[in-house]
Amino acid sequence: MKSAYASLKDLIPLMKSSKSKIKIKLQASQNYEESCTCNQMSCLICSRKRSSSMISLKLLKPSVMVEQGKIEKQGITQLQSLIQRKLQRQASNQLLQQTYYGGKQNYDPKDSSINQSTWLLSKTHSRKISVDNYSQKEVTQLKSAQQQSVTTISRLAFRFIYVIGKGGFGKVWRVELKQAKKEFALKEMIKAKIIQKRSVNSVMNEKFLLEQLRHPFIVNMHFAFQDRENLYLVLDLLRGGDLRFHISKLKRFTEDHAKFFACCMLLALQYLHSNGIIHRDLKPENLVFDKDGFLHLTDLGVARLNKESVANDTSGTPGYMAPEVMCRMEHSFPADYYALGVILYEILIGKRPYNGKNRQEIREQILAKQATIKEGTPNVSSQAIDFINRLLIRKPQQRLGFAGIEEVIHHSWLKGVQWTKLLNKEMKSLFIPGCIDGNSDFQNQISADSELEDECQSLVRRKSVQSLFDGYKFQ
Asked: Which part of the chain is the Protein kinase domain (predicted)?
């Protein structure tokens, strides 16, 4: 057996004249190094089953081993295509590793602040196996649509009905997937706006996290694709409006409503935290009702894996941002519990505990005094007051939930909650918003488009800019 390093073109004459079997090692012109430390049973980067005790991979160099017999059987053209696909797959794996893990992934469930209890883990499956909470008909429709759309999914695969919302990067449409006759929400994001706001990492991070998740109380992703001008994210269609819309209409909610909302949020947070994800932007705008009144958590744009150090990460909304995040300190899951306390304070009292025109004003108020709900506040029980006040504690080490989410769900205010029934949506919500996406008040809340600068629009014509969105696809 002979071996050599050369180009395929140089070796073809040699292989034709030689009677012996020749092994050729074809290498990419650029060497890539992979250092996978995802510490998962099924690695997302190397796509191989791995022991949970494995922490890293040895340095790998992409190469393809081809024998002379395969060349004779397959032909040069087919062989070149095979080699190209293998090298592209290896480069894609490297891109994922570098983009989403930065060469490292230090999350270890054993070291996190959450106690790895199994109180609901049996019900919170990953995307690949989580079909328990969907009817058999819906599962069949989705699988059929996904199988049929592997090569055809694009903007043309959907019938656009009308706009149901607008965000920082574009519109949110109510659409129908033509083949499956099933409705979704389609988030259309303009690449030029994403670049203008320096949010490429945010939108890529959201897609990467959503493709690994599926849960009854988060807004799940079904497809992701792009064209030259836009990114498209196809999500669950929820027609009850967001919590901010209903707060603006009703001002306050009853304590029973607040408890039900808190339980929905805790189920979503428990699932994210059990997967090592901090949401970091829990607020009324990111909590959306379905028509039956169940709250769903959305927008993972600033969510992050619970890394070893996130001290310089201050993403979030100031009014709901935990003090440790505001002050650029180390933070973890308790930051989400603080935001939960702010939301409950707002819907029961009618205002946020700390208000200001900007981040600096809010920060000064937080440092000046500890916000609390006073005992004897009308229509709020002492148990609810204790629950919210403990969530709002400024020091995360003293905050309710620092020892794990079990500390939150076992509080006396939530005693008697039937978590399994709620997870399966077998109980009735006390607040029924119905379908409001066609409501005139809701439509008036949708803001107008902002114009793009010509310079920003011209950016998307560059190949280097388009390469920033490589891998934005999920079907």
From this structure: 158-414
